């Protein structure tokens, strides 16, 4: 049970899809002009992700490895069709606002990523917990981002006005560039919080982590080049 709970909770912060794993950024940036759109897209992803994880886990031992990706897409596509029909029947206005991004859930990096990395290798209960956790984390992220953009760009949240008539909306936030800026600020804030928590706990961090990365090969190569040049300056070649 502890393992199942861990699989569920990891998607809520440690492996938060758009902000930690940086997956599913296309809908994250495109549909979050307001909190309602973010919530609607998130709920659709929860439905597809949780059920696709369970179905893929159930049939993982009978799917040939060479065609597993095709099978994963077919399962996800069937569930997305069901989501589209439900939204058209009960939330047609939201369906029109989300537009093409609803059918594009089929090829969302989160859906295929969890299918390949987890559901195809683990039992159904753990796969369900993984799908629900990742889906909820994705939903919270989109709703949070959409809420910030809606508050700053329109002065409302879920259509409810927050400020008086003297408020001047920052319309840049509900435009495409505003989505990138807002996402970047959130990522920077989460990196800063992670560094602060690690330092407070006395954890030794990679020297490059403060820059927002985990120490890629490029940084290490630059360090090696700098060290070599320093060594050459200290020991100049004799003529």
Secondary-structure topology with pairs:
Blueprint: H1 2-9, H2 17-21, H3 25-30, H4 35-59, H5 68-90, H6 92-98, H7 109-119, H8 124-153, E1 156-157, E2 160-161, H9 176-200, H10 217-234
Antiparallel strand pairs: 1-2
Describe this structure in words.
By secondary structure, this protein is mainly α. The chain is 66% helix and 2% strand. The chain folds into two domains: 2-193, no CATH class; 209-234. Strands 1-2 form a two-stranded antiparallel sheet. The radius of gyration is 22 Å and the shape is globular. The mean pLDDT is 86.
Question: Count of helical segments?
Answer: 10
**Spatial arrangement of strands, main beta sheet:** 1-2
Mean pLDDT value = 86
Q: Name the overall outline.
A: globular
Overall SS class: mainly alpha
The main sheet comes to: 2 strands, antiparallel
Q: How many strands appear in the DSSP assignment?
A: 2
The low-pLDDT segments are none
Order of helices and strands: HHHHHHHHEEHH
Rg of Cα set: 22 Å
Report the β-strand fraction as a percent range.
under 5%
How many domain units?
2
Report the helical percentage: 55-70%
- Distance N terminus to C terminus? 72 Å
Entry summary:
The protein is mostly helical. 66% of the residues lie in helices and 2% in strands.
List key phrases describing it.
single chain; 239 residues; mainly alpha; 2 domains; two-stranded antiparallel sheet; 10 helices; globular
């Amino acid at each position: 049970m502890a393992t199942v709970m861990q699989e569920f909770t990891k998607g809520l912060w440690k492996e938060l899809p758009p902000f930690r794993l940086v997956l599913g950024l296309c809908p994250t940036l495109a549909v979050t002009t307001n909190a309602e759109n973010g919530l609607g897209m998130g709920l659709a992803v929860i439905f597809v992700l949780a059920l696709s994880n369970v179905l893929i886990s159930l049939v993982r031992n009978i799917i040939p490895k060479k065609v597993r990706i095709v099978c994963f897409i077919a399962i996800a596509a069937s569930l997305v069709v069901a989501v589209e029909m439900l939204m058209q029947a009960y939330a047609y206005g939201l369906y029109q606002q989300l537009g093409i991004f609803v059918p594009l859930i089929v090829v969302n990096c989160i859906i295929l990523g969890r299918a390949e990395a987890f559901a195809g290798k683990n039992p159904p209960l753990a796969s369900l917990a993984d799908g629900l956790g990742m889906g909820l984390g994705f939903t919270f992220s989109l709703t949070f981002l959409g809420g910030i953009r809606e508050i700053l760009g329109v002065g409302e949240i879920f259509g409810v006005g927050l400020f008086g008539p003297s408020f001047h909306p920052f319309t840049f936030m509900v435009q495409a560039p505003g989505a990138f800026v807002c996402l970047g600020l959130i990522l920077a804030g989460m990196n800063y919080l992670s560094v602060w928590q690690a330092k407070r706990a006395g954890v030794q961090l990679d020297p490059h982590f403060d820059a927002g990365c985990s120490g890629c090969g490029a940084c290490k190569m630059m360090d090696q080049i700098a060290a070599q040049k320093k060594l050459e300056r200290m020991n100049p070649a004799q003529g």
